Amino acid sequence: MKVPEEPISDSLGDVDDISLRFSMDGDFKLNGELDASTRQRKLVNAISQMNSMKGSPSVLYSPGRRQMLFVITVDSYDDNGDIKANLEDIIKNVMKTAGLTSGKGKIGFVLATGSSVQEVVEMTKKYLINLEDFDAIVCNSGSEIYYPWRDMEVDADYEAHVEYKWPGESIRSVMLRLACTEPETEDDITEYTSACSTRCYAISVKQGVETRRVDDLRQRLRMRGLRCNIVYTHAATRLNVIPLCASRLQAVRYLLIRWGIDMTKSVLFLGEKGDTDYEDLLGGLHKTIILKGAVGSDSEKLLRSEENFKREDVVPRDSPNISYVEENGGPPEILSTLESYGIK
């Protein structure tokens, strides 16, 4: 079935009406109006109540009284797109650091990744990481949230929030035609069935195959009336096509609002580079700690063309919310950086 096209100027005309537009800026209004975070929390609760009225009972996804979140978003892959062993050390170092602070027991842990939930489970088993140490697992570049302490139950409310304009099955054939510039063989790009889900269409990209950049793909999809978020992950060997409103940062914002945690009380741990959504994770009121040398191969070359804007146009280099830990830095070095943010 051919998807009708629409002008680019009209393709995002009603995106401003999307209910799920979480802000990290926390602006305050006068004349008795609610601040942004309070309005957003009321919004989440209202949509959850609507789902319950429709016959889908809402579950209270809360791991306990958390006052801060440590979010591990390091995209650590080798050249083949496989998860590197150093992710084990990163996760354990972050958790050990939390144990050295006075907030022990009040700090929650979230893993946000471009991998599927099956890959995360396999990774934790391989490296003997207790999955239940995490309060939430954000999978497939932010299209799904799972709760290990609830038997890896998916958050159905979050899926409902991000389903806006999600084309579902109709995106499959379109992406296979558009993603590759000049496919030489049929297996240059294929559906990655094991990583696909109701909110993520995953495509496997053979190494060396030229694929279109994210900005080019977005434009081509808009011309066909399709609105999606596109993320290259696993060292550019995989392409995740997810709902327009879904992203790793949106998922983190959702959790903060749902659990009543102030947005300034979240710390994101990143490498110096990563998936094509890396820049989205840098900006906002949250604190960012960049672990030098943690990431080898990345996907950022497929974000946009060279003549387009640069990263410094998006995120200021001297942001007070971004700090660095030197290569091979352990819990003491991470703790020192946290203390510079007033976290002791």
Structural notes for this entry:
Helix content is 26%, strand content 16%. It is built from nine helices and twelve strands.
What gross morphology would you assign?
A: globular
Low-confidence stretches: 1-13, 15-32
Number of helices: 9
Strand content: 15-25%
How many β-strand stretches?
12
Straight-line distance between termini: 58 Å
Relative helix content: 25-40%
Largest sheet: spatial strand order: 5-4-3-2-1-10-11-12
The helix-strand sequence is HHEHEHEEEHHEEHEEHEEEH
The SS-based structural class is alpha/beta
Radius of gyration: 20 Å
The biggest beta sheet reads:
8 strands, mixed
The averaged pLDDT comes out at 84
Could you give the topology of this structure?
Blueprint: H1 8-11, H2 36-53, E1 68-72, H3 86-99, E2 107-112, H4 117-126, E3 136-139, E4 144-147, E5 153-154, H5 156-161, H6 171-178, E6 189-191, E7 201-205, H7 214-223, E8 228-233, E9 238-243, H8 248-258, E10 266-270, E11 287-291, E12 322-325, H9 331-340
Parallel strand pairs: 1-2, 1-10, 2-3, 10-11, 11-12
Antiparallel strand pairs: 3-4, 4-5, 6-7, 7-9, 8-9
Short description, anyone?
This protein has 344 residues and is an alpha/beta fold. It contains nine helices and twelve strands.
Characteristics:
single chain, 344 residues, alpha/beta, eight-stranded mixed β-sheet, 9 helices, 12 strands, 26% helix, globular
